Amino acid sequence: MSCEPGATRNSQLTTHNYMKTPVIAVFDVGKTNKKLFLFDEHYKIVFERSARFTETVDEDGDPCENLASLRLSVFDSLHEVFRRPEFDIKAINFSTYGASFVYIDEHGKPLAPLYNYLKPYPEALKEKFYHTYGGEEAFALATASPVLGSLNSGMQLYRIKYEQPDLFRQLYKALHLPQYMSFLISGKVYTDMTSIGCHTNLWDFKHNRYHEWVTKEGVLDKLAPIVSADAVFPASFPGNNYAVGAGFHDSSAALIPYLVSFSKPFVLLSTGTWCISLNPFNEQALTVDDLRADCLCYIHYQGKPVKASRLFAGYEHEQQMKRIAAHFNVSPARLKNIAYDTNVTEALRERFKIEKKSTPQEQLAAFGQRELTLFNSEIEAYHQLMIDLVEAQVSSTQLAIGNSRVKRLFVDGGFGKNVIYMNLLAEAFPQLEVFAASMAQATAIGTALAIHQSWNSLPFPNDIIELKYYAPSHRKVS
User: Fold this and answer.
1) Domain 250-478 carries which CATH code?
2) Which tens digit of pLDDT belongs to each residue from 359-390?
3) Which residues contact 323 (CB under 8 A, 6 or more apart)?
4) What are the Carbohydrate kinase FGGY N-terminal domain coordinates in residue numbering (predicted)?
5) CA 388 to each of CA 297, 303, 316, 375: distance values in angstroms, whole numbers, following the listed order
6) Class for domain 8-246, per CATH?
7) By three-state DSSP, how is residue 398 classified?
8) DSSP string of 313-364?
9) How do residues 122-163 score in pLDDT, each as one tens digit?
10) For the chain, where do the domains classified as CATH 3.30.420.40 start and end?
């Protein structure tokens, strides 16, 4: 990505001294980091570049994505890689964070900022919407998402219609962010199912179509036609004869390598700031209790629902680590390297009985309510933190599992590298094979895999995911 003022960048390059290497370029756009990868036909990274842009603000002064910087960086980055003689660009695809629309006119020019999905939503307008369309509970069940304000991105369109009617009239298409990036290169406007299915309030999961409000409010005309996940288009951007994918919602893209690699039913626990349990093998409809516990449904790249549960566990882990480190006067890095000790966990379970809470979110708060003076060392305190976090995670993941017959649990991201977390999780799910799964840039690889046939002459790879098995330990009987 090109460096705008206020941006930082790092690059890594592996060159080949022989014939041109066929590659796919993948733009992986997160809220913080914007990355470009080139993968060869073995899905090895042969080039990568990252940048961070300074946010701008919308008309209300709320922070939002710097759309102009993002757009320029795409063009500048492509100009650079096309100039490199060692690469033969066969295709380009995109993955970005969800719940974000770019509003364009008939000439493709953005008409408004890329509003932040954390932007506060007007309470009166929200009440009007849900009163008109059956109430919060019934609507949330139909669209398989809790009520999340601007994070239900369809609500952003509803807001524009009533608060900015002139903008709504000028609006040609509202493109989900992955499809806007694809549009920059292909000149084509499309919508993909993974973006529609990401808690947008747009999709009726029971009837497998847009919800009735989308038509009644005149929003359907503002949405681009739906295209299949493996569709590709010719490029309008200068370069060689390469294919352009339609783009993906990032959480759904990260699931693709697992769906391609494993046929035995599984749950993917993707860990980071949010820990999201994704179950593509649970076909049960959401219940009211599921919604109250922060469950929702996504749609994976083959168009089927994925039951998911969310837990803010990575964030809680960071906050409580800081508290432990300050209390015992050690560095947070020291805590991350503590070895798993079954004797410590058994002793702690005897001293501190787990009080079952009604929701995983309430369970997650358990350690924050504990007095650190009750612990003799940072080793004890950190083990108890992990016991409490895993207890909450088990409750959350079990909601995604439901009655489905999953056989495996894959854990990727930060907690997959935490031996205490992984051992406790394996102990909590003795009926499942629990693996720490590691794969460099899962989201970007998934984005490339989805259009594999359009650029790669080799078969699907079978070695892109590294697995480490964790056997459930046997508790000592006192």
Assistant:
1) 3.30.420.40
2) 899 999 999 999 999 999 999 999 999 999 99
3) 368, 372
4) 24-216
5) 26, 36, 11, 14
6) alpha beta
7) helix
8) HHHHHHHHHHHHHHHHT--HHHHHTPPP-HHHHHHHHHHSPPPPPSSHHHHH
9) 999 999 999 999 999 999 999 999 999 999 999 999 999 999
10) 8-246, 250-478
